[in-house]
Amino acid sequence: MKAYFFSSCHKLLFYIKQPLRDKIPFKKTQFHTNVSAYPYSLILENCKNIQTLKKTHTHVITTGLSNNNILAAKILALYAMLGNLDDANKIREHNSNAFLWNALIGVYARNECCHEALELYTKMRVFGIESDNFTYPLVLKACAGILGLKEGREIHCDIVKKGFELDVFVGVGIIDMYGKCGIFEDARQMFDKMSERDVVAWNAMISGCAQNGCSNEAFELFKEMQLADLRPNSSTLVGVLGVCDIVGGLERGQQIHGYVVKSGCECNAFLGTSLVELYAKCGDIEAAALVFEKMYEKSVVSWNAMISGYAQNGYANEALKLFYQMQFGDVELNSLTVVSVLLACAQLRALEEGKWIHDYAIRSGLELDVFVGTALIDMYSKCGRIDTARQLFDEMPRKNVVSWTAMIGGYSYHGYANEAFKLFNQMQLANVQPNSVTLVNMLLACTLLGVMQQGKSIHNYIVRRGFDLDVSMQNTLVDMYAKCGSIELSCGLFNKMPKRNLASWNVMVAAYRIHGLAKDALALFVQMQQIGIRPDHITFICVLSACSHAGLVDEGRRCFDSMTIEYCITPEMKHYACMVDLLGRSGHLDEAHDFIKKMPLEPDASVWGALLGACRIHNNIKLGEHAANCLIELKPDDAGYYVLLSNIYAAAGRWDSVMKVRTTMKDRGVKKSPGCSLVEINNRVYAFLVGDRSHPQLKKIYSFLEALAVQMKEAGYIPDTNFVLHDVEEEMKERMLCSHSERLAIAFGILNTSPGAPIRITKNLRVCGDCHTVTKFISKIVDRKVIVRDANRFHHFKDGYCSCGDYW
Question: Which fold does the domain 595-672 belong to in CATH?
Answer without folding.
Answer: 1.25.40
